[in-house]
Amino acid sequence: MSCYDRRDLGLLLLRLGTGGVLAAHGTQKLFGWFGGHGLEGTGQFMESVGYAPGKASATASGLAETGGGVLLALGLATPAAGAAAAGAMAGAAAVHLPNGFFAQEGGYEHAVSLGLVGAGLAVTGPGRLSLDHALGHVLNRGWMVPAALGVTAAATAVVIGLRNKRVRAQAVDEQDTLFEE
């Protein structure tokens, strides 16, 4: 009988699939790969949706997605990797929230799905087919899960809160401009 079970294989598939998608999206932002716009274009977009400064926001988002995705796929530092993915996807979901749930309408379903899988992997762990397991879980201790998720949740709440404040202020400015005309 194999030392790996269905759970290990399932976690490997979740890690590879989710990590690969996240890493691909992150490299679009960082390097313009896979039809992305690189830091300049992504920075301009980030600024337009309230994340300022745009280029720094694009860098942070790209690093969280690329780094978190690669680490998830490898099963290395899984609590931090999953938390990074969840935080990045919460930021993306905030942008898509006004469009409703479904992705075909520009909604947040894709971002939420990736973020939940990342958080779930942080909590569950990577399984035995992982670098964390091979390294004796030195970067995957039980206390690291709430620490990584807690720090990420706090930082994400601040970033999204500031973004939402900018978006509301911009809407008020636009409304005032309309009344002045």
UniProtKB/TrEMBL annotation:
GO cellular component, one term: plasma membrane
Membrane protein topology class: Multi-pass membrane protein
InterPro entries: DoxX, DoxX-like_oxidoreductase
Origin: domain of life: Bacteria
Compartments in which it is found: Cell membrane
Membrane-spanning intervals of the chain: 70-95, 143-162
Keyword Nucleotide-binding listed: no
Keywords (A to Z) from UniProt: Cell membrane, Membrane, Transmembrane, Transmembrane helix
Similarity remark: Belongs to the DoxX family.
Alphabetical list of PANTHER family matching this protein: INNER MEMBRANE PROTEIN YPHA-RELATED, OXIDOREDUCTASE CATD-RELATED
Protein's name according to its UniProt entry: DoxX family protein
Species this chain originates from: Streptomyces dangxiongensis
